[in-house]
């Protein structure tokens, strides 16, 4: 799968491992994931199943374990215990097969600052084993669709936050993954860039892709996601389709109730009250 082409079908797709009918219904399966840092338990035997074809939101308060969970789910951090499977492929026992199906936008993405956007994508495409013609075609398309064509010769060190998010997304999409795992893809992004990213992800899901992303913006999650999981203290405390989790209220109200937050209370600073 390679998403951005909307006018004509891309004929130069990279070969991905075939997916059996048994594996095709679950994009990401997490079982008993556990991670501690000293005496602090960051992820506490967490279980999560992301259906194939879903737009899945992972929400939780700061320090809930979202980034740690996603880092282990994509192989950037080794868990102390637990198992992760990508379309049935064990991430730690079959890393090459699993990661071929995976596109990742990590938290705090580090970029080679002295490369341009075009150079970065070209390098990553060749590193992925794509042929030069396919790389050139996909790079052109990604830069165009993500509104980065005018900055393709600009060094990454001069990219704005929104541009860095978009080039990171382009890097995640380049090899044609079936699952995108994105950590706060809309954080500190301007409305125009956020709209572009949202459209790309929606089209990806419509094209039979699967997306798992973390966010603190409840209205956004409620707007775009089909499923959501609420995480606190390293555990999933609610999961399901958006309508099931939010019930008769908004997702934000349901979230505050689930994590024990306060909404509309009388809290304030005493010296600002007069």
UniProtKB/TrEMBL annotation:
Keywords: ATP-binding, Nucleotide-binding, Transport. It holds the Pfam family ABC_tran. Residues 28-258 form the ABC transporter domain. Residues 1-22 are annotated as: Disordered. SMART domains: AAA. Residues 11-22 have a biased composition (Polar residues). The keyword Nucleotidyltransferase does not apply. Residues 1-10 have a biased composition (Basic residues). InterPro entries: AAA+_ATPase (IPR003593), ABC_transporter-like_ATP-bd (IPR003439), ABC_Transporter_VariousFunc (IPR051782), P-loop_NTPase (IPR027417). SUPFAM superfamilies: P-loop containing nucleoside triphosphate hydrolases (SSF52540). GO terms for molecular function: ATP binding; ATP hydrolysis activity. This is ABC transporter ATP-binding protein.
């Amino acid at each position: 799968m390679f998403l951005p082409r909307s006018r004509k079908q891309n004929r130069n797709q990279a070969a991905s491992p075939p997916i059996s009918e048994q594996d095709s219904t679950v994009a990401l399966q997490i079982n008993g994931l556990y991670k501690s840092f000293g005496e602090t338990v960051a992820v506490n035997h967490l279980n999560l199943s992301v259906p194939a074809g879903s737009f899945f939101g992972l929400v939780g308060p700061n320090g809930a374990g979202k980034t740690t969970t996603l880092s282990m789910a994509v192989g950037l951090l080794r868990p102390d215990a637990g198992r992760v499977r990508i379309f049935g492929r064990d991430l730690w026992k079959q890393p090459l097969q699993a990661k071929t199906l995976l596109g990742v936008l990590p938290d705090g993405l580090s970029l080679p600052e002295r490369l341009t956007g075009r150079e970065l994508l070209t390098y990553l495409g060749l590193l992925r084993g794509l042929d030069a013609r396919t790389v050139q075609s996909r790079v052109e398309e990604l830069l165009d669709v993500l509104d980065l064509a005018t900055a393709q010769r600009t060094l990454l060190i001069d990219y704005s936050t929104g541009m860095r998010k978009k080039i990171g997304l382009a890097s995640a999409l380049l090899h044609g993954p079936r699952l995108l795992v994105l950590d706060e893809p809309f954080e500190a992004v301007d409305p125009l860039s956020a709209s572009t990213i949202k459209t790309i992800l929606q089209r990806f899901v419509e094209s039979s892709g699967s997306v798992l992303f973390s966010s603190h913006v409840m209205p956004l999650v409620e707007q775009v996601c089909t499923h959501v999981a609420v995480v606190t203290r390293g555990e999933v405390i609610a999961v399901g389709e958006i309508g099931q989790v939010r019930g008769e209220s908004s997702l934000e109200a349901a979230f505050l109730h689930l994590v024990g937050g306060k909404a509309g209370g009388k809290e304030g600073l005493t010296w600002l009250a007069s």
